[in-house]
Structures are given as C-alpha cells and as structure tokens.
C-alpha cells in the first residue's frame, strides 16, 4: 500500500485527492462517484478501505 500511486491511465494520485469532490482523472468525469460512495457508507455507518499499488488498478473494499 502506498500514499502516492498511479491509476491505470498513468495519472499520479494521492490518497487525499481520491475522495475530494470534483477531483477526476477522466476527460468527461464529474468527480462525484467516490465522494458519493463515501458519504453513503458513512451515513449507514459502514466503512471502506482500499489498496493501491504504485502502478495499476486499485482495490476497494466495503466493510459492513
């Protein structure tokens, strides 16, 4: 697990930015997806975690 990783498109991302509203790496993205997921999980008192390799995909886990 790392604090700084590269997504599958080769864009460097830090953990802090990942759940920031309006942050996106996609040309037509809105940057709301993970922010909304985090809010919904929080309201239902669920937790989440994710693992990121320095390069490649990220794995998300929802803890019920």
Explain the overall architecture.
This protein is flat. By secondary structure, it is an alpha+beta fold. The chain has one domain. The protein is built from two helices and four strands; from the N terminus they run E-E-H-H-E-E.
**Molecular shape:** flat
N-to-C SSE series? Answer: EEHHEE
The profile of the biggest β sheet is: 2 strands, antiparallel
SS element count, helices? 2
In helices, the fraction of residues equals: 10-25%
**Helix/strand/pairing category:** alpha+beta
The radius of gyration computed from the alpha-carbon positions, rounded to a whole number of angstroms, is 12 Å
- β-strand percent reads 25-35%
What's the topology here?
Layout: E1 4-6, E2 12-14, H1 15-18, H2 33-43, E3 47-52, E4 58-63
Antiparallel strand pairs: 1-2, 3-4
Properties at a glance:
single chain, 2 helices, flat
Quick summary:
With 64 residues, the chain is an alpha+beta fold. It has helices at residues 15-18, 33-43, and strands at 4-6, 12-14, 47-52, 58-63. The strands form two sheets. The chain has a two-stranded antiparallel sheet with strand order 1-2.
